[in-house]
Amino acid sequence: QVQLVESGGGLVQAGGSLRLSCAASGRTGGTYAMGWFRQAPGKRRVFVAAITWSGGQTTYGDSVKGRFTLTKDNPKKTVYLQMNSLEPGDTADYYCTAAIKPIRVGEALEYDYWGQGTQVTVSS
């Protein structure tokens, strides 16, 4: 089992920045990738970003390219989502996720573990 704990959400004005963290614990040795999805009220869960654990390859959703950056700290088993130039449309619950096998990183159903989520609100 892998446990994921997110932190760093909050309220920010448009144009501002936030950094989300996701710490993994448990049987993390076989992790293939970690990522973030977000879900706004009444909408489906949408891919934000993912990073492969060994190679560090990053993939971003179209709506966040150029504004969000995903990095990882292997010894701390933590990923960080730096979110800049935030817009009201970024308002959502953000969920950290992990996969223990090769997957299509943009597909939510292919991930194995999920965190509880952290709320991000961007005011205009």
Write the layout of secondary structure elements.
Blueprint: E1 2-7, E2 10-13, E3 18-26, E4 33-39, E5 46-52, E6 58-60, E7 68-73, E8 78-83, E9 92-99, E10 113-114, E11 118-123
Parallel strand pairs: 2-11
Antiparallel strand pairs: 1-3, 3-8, 4-5, 4-9, 5-6, 7-8, 9-10, 9-11
Molecular structure report:
This protein has 124 residues and is mainly beta. The chain is 0% helix and 52% strand. The strands form 2 sheets. Strands 2, 4, 5, 6, 9, 10 and 11 form a 7-stranded mixed beta sheet that branches. A 4-stranded antiparallel beta sheet has the order 1-3-8-7, with no helix packed on it. Strand 4 and strand 5 form a beta hairpin.
* Fraction in beta strands: over 45%
Order of helices and strands: EEEEEEEEEEE
Q: Runs with pLDDT <50, length 5+?
A: none
Global morphology: globular
Q: How would you summarize what this structure contains?
A:
With 124 residues, this protein is mainly β. The chain has no helices and 11 strands. The mean pLDDT is 96.
Short key terms for the protein model shown above:
mainly beta, 11 strands, 124 residues, seven-stranded mixed β-sheet, four-stranded antiparallel β-sheet, single chain
